[in-house]
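TOPIC: backbone geometry
CONTENTS: sequence, structure tokens:
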Amino acid sequence: MQCSISSRLGGFEIDNDKAVEGLAKVRLPGRMEMICEDPRILIDGAHNAASIRALMHAIGQSIPYDSMIVIFGCNEDKDVNGMLQELAIRCRQSDFYPQQFSKSNVA
């Protein structure tokens, strides 16, 4: 992977090697997080159609879409139809189970 970072950012000098080293250590729990290798289980908190599209693109670079099982959950205040359309385009089979959930029920 090649990374190019501007040598000046807000008046601070940025060393490319140090920036790449730091970025390699970044962890974002719940964002393309592999929680099990066998079977391979990946979780992601994509919350709109664009983030589902980006997630599926990233996954598709290393995992065939037709081998995926998608478990989808979403609050009703999100673009549920848009997200489901993105998943349907890219998955051979998808099963969706609507749930009654209210944010007010979360402690």
About this structure: The longest strand covers residues 33-37. The mean pLDDT is 78. The chain is about 30% helix and 10% strand.
